[in-house]
């Protein structure tokens, strides 16, 4: 049997660039849709705040739960590369369905469900390919996943600036319905560009993948995956339409994730347990983080709509007006700026033997998240006589939360890559996304505490509703910081044990 040569740094870089670019375009599509979806439900379909945030919370949960299945399909059935590409094709179809004009709630749920399945097939496998490229080099894995996270946010930054502007421009020019669907069409085009780019660079990935990638495509298995995907689409649409079912599904998913970790820890080899326990602790912390993260597309998005002055003023000069949905782009803008700085810092610290642990980075991340929400909570003291605050508040609030995100969510995939055995890498990345999905739904539930009744249209009345939630979230983030610091000694022991076992192998 022919052995695979050890990849050179140059070949690793070429392979990583291929995944970086398809991930960038996939996230372009996803975040372009996310920037508008809550506004679309509230402004176009007439949903009350509470229903819109819960529906999107359930959809986000499903979007994050599905990769658990997709990672297994990539590892065991179709192959990591093939499953990722199939996911990109399904996502293209999902965004294309959102282009169809109309006000059918069920059709929206169906389109979102196709996106759920496409994301499930794509997401875990793209991350697992990055892991396979840099397997065995902890410092380079941290650096690679931080740059990979920049790909996510580069795509998000472009689309979250573009799709809201395009929606407003087309609506003002041609009518109130068309702009939404033209913006969704741009999301589908992003996926097509990603697929074209991958096809042009596909040779760089020939040596990267899971075992099924090395075998001829089994058409029977592909048919079974497609049939299962259709069933999952209709199941997801049913869940989105029935909030009680959605809540039960999410809670069941939480039990399943805990069960997966418990099973793997109890049945895994002795030298694997410390790493798996460390991954479990950090995954629980990530769950808490994503509750804060989900506010960006729910409570913070509606806060921007009702209580933020769209004028962008620099040194007293009014440069332009933001579309409310564009404020979400501040998150990827900050991450795009900060990612290469952190990646350089991680690599430099690693080479000098002074890199701090992922657990310590998580604790620091929660401090920054708390600072961000306290900035938003200060709106009650910084608003003008009409109840609106400067758009600069969004800039600095997103800045703090985004740096915190890089230290928590940005290293979540690196944490799985570092602590979880390679043989269960794709599956465990999927389990990590399930945990993230549970917290996305919980984040939607939290956002309902800032639901503004339809009879309130005055910003002075909606402002205290939002600031009360933001200040409570700031306090909650400080509690998470205290917990993260308290478990640092345990995490250091687990990490040391895992490292010693890895060296002895």
Task: Kindly describe this structure.
The protein has 505 residues and is an all-alpha fold. The chain is built from 18 helices and 2 strands. The protein has a two-stranded antiparallel ribbon with strand order 1-2. It is globular, with a radius of gyration of 22 Å.
What portion of residues is helical? Answer: over 70%
Number of strands: 2
Radius of gyration: 22 Å
CA(first)-CA(last) distance: 23 Å
Biggest β-sheet strands, sense, barrel: 2 strands, antiparallel
How much beta, percentage-wise? under 5%
What sequence of helices (H) and strands (E) makes up the elements?
Answer: HHHHHHHHHHEEHHHHHHHH
What strand line-up does the widest sheet have?
1-2
Structural class: mainly alpha
> Mean pLDDT, nearest integer?
83
Relevant terms:
disordered N terminus, mainly alpha, 18 helices, about 80% helix, about 500 residues
Concise description?
Helices cover 78% and strands 2% of the residues.
Helix and strand topology:
Elements: H1 9-44, H2 49-77, H3 80-97, H4 105-133, H5 138-174, H6 178-201, H7 219-241, H8 243-267, H9 270-293, H10 299-307, E1 311-314, E2 317-321, H11 330-351, H12 358-377, H13 379-382, H14 391-407, H15 412-419, H16 425-447, H17 459-486, H18 488-504
Antiparallel strand pairs: 1-2
Helix pairs in contact: 1-2, 1-4, 1-5, 1-6, 2-3, 2-4, 2-7, 2-8, 2-16, 3-4, 3-6, 4-7, 4-16, 5-6, 5-11, 5-15, 7-8, 8-9, 8-16, 9-12, 9-15, 9-16, 9-17, 9-18, 10-17, 11-14, 12-14, 12-17, 15-16
């Amino acid at each position: 049997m022919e052995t695979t040569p050890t990849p050179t740094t140059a070949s690793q870089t070429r392979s990583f660039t291929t995944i970086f670019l398809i991930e960038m375009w996939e996230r372009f599509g996803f975040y372009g849709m996310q920037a508008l979806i809550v506004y679309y439900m509230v402004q176009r379909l007439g949903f009350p705040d509470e229903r819109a945030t819960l529906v999107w919370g359930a959809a986000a949960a499903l979007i994050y739960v599905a990769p658990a299945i997709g990672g297994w399909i990539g590892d065991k059935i179709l192959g990591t590369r093939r499953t990722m590409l199939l996911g990109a094709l399904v996502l293209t179809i999902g965004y294309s369905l959102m282009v169809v004009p109309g006000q059918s709630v069920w059709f929206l749920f169906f389109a979102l469900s196709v996106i759920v399945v496409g994301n499930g097939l794509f997401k875990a496998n793209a991350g697992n390919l990055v892991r396979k490229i840099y397997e065995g080099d902890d410092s380079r894995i941290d650096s690679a996943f931080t740059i990979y996270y920049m790909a996510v946010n580069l795509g998000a930054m472009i689309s979250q600036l573009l799709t809201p502007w395009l929606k407003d421009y087309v609506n003002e020019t041609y009518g109130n319905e068309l702009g939404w669907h033209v913006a969704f069409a741009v999301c589908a085009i992003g996926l097509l560009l990603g697929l074209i780019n991958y096809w042009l660079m596909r040779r760089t990935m020939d040596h990267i993948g899971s075992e099924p990638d090395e075998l001829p495509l089994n058409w029977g298995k592909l048919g079974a995956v497609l049939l299962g995907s259709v069933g999952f689409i209709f199941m997801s649409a049913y869940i989105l339409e029935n909030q009680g079912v959605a809540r039960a599904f999410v809670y069941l998913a939480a039990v399943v994730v805990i069960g997966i970790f418990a099973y793997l820890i109890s049945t895994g080899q002795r030298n694997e347990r410390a790493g798996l326990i460390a991954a479990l602790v950090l995954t629980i912390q990530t769950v808490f983080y994503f509750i804060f993260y989900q506010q960006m597309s729910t409570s913070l998005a509606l806060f921007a709509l009702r209580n933020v002055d769209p004028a962008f003023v620099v040194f007293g000069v009014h440069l332009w007006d933001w579309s409310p949905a564009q404020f979400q782009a501040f998150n990827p803008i900050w991450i795009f700026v900060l990612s290469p700085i952190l990646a350089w810092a991680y690599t430099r610290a690693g080479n000098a033997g002074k890199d701090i642990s992922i657990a310590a980075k998580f604790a620091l991340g929660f401090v920054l998240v708390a600072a961000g929400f306290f900035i938003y909570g200060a709106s009650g003291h910084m608003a003008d006589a009409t109840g609106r605050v400067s758009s600069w508040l969004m800039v600095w609030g997103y800045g703090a939360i985004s740096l915190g995100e890089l230290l928590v969510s940005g290293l979540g995939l690196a944490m799985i890559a570092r602590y979880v055995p390679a043989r269960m890498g794709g599956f465990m990345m999927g389990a990590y996304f399930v945990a993230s999905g549970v917290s996305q739904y919980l984040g939607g539930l939290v956002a309902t505490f800032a639901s503004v009744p339809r009879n309130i249209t005055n910003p002075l009345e909606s402002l205290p509703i939002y600031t009360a939630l933001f200040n409570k979230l700031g306090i909650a983030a400080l509690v998470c910081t205290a917990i993260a610091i308290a478990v640092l000694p345990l995490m250091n022991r687990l990490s040391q044990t895992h490292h010693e076992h890895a060296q002895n192998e």
